[in-house]
Amino acid sequence: MGEAKRRRQTGERSPLAHKQKKQRLLAASLSVVALIAVVFGVYWLSNPKLMKPSSLPTAEGRSAFPAEQDGLGVSIGDDDAPLVVREFADYQCPACADFSSTIERLKAEYIDSGQVRLVFFDLPLRQHANAIPAAEAARCAEDQDGWWEMHKTLFEKQSDWSGADSPDEIFLDYAESQGLDTRRFRRCMSGDIHRDEIDESHNLARDLRITSTPTVLVDNIPLTRTNWAQLSAIVDRELSDRDDGTDQ
Predict the structure, then answer these.
(1) Locate the Thioredoxin domain: which residues (predicted)?
(2) pLDDT of 38
(3) Domain ranges in the chain?
(4) Which of 29, 77, 131, 144 is 20 to 30 A from 191 via CA?
């Protein structure tokens, strides 16, 4: 009796079929392991309690940030806060828009309680045609104590204005929805009143060799990952060091 015929009659699998089954089981097992690794990795990166202090960046070897230049940015929070977080960003930058929710959480958990002061520096990139008008809109809103709301709106609605030929009317609508004086806001925008400040902020970034957005510093410690886990872990460590009198 032929071998193939015998296997058909007995129901026995051929060596090739058996090998293929083992390969399928191995592939399925590897897929499960990979999925578990991805889930664990995401959880680890998003949970600051799992980040070891030794894995966090430090200020070692870095010069102190020129704090006298903070006036070139927009500052929110207690002037006497023990820690300063500085962000260099572009309102038309998608990664900056993604990171904005992290800054909102920083404000809720650390800035509003007086532990951290935020300084936001404009770094409009050349490839983003509407980045400078957006920065001007935020600064014109600041003249009426509306910077934070405009700042949030510009990032939240980035897709609505980033491709506009002339976004000023869109920004005017945002100002109106905030209850700002729209005539004053329009004059500010049309007069480029804050253009020099934006240029000076951009020049500071150049002098510090900061070229990408967002670049975030906790005092003078640069984030290597722009996420909440690393930001909050560094902030907690630095605040603890200051409480212990072991400022780095």
Answers:
(1) 45-240
(2) 41
(3) 3-46, 49-244
(4) 77
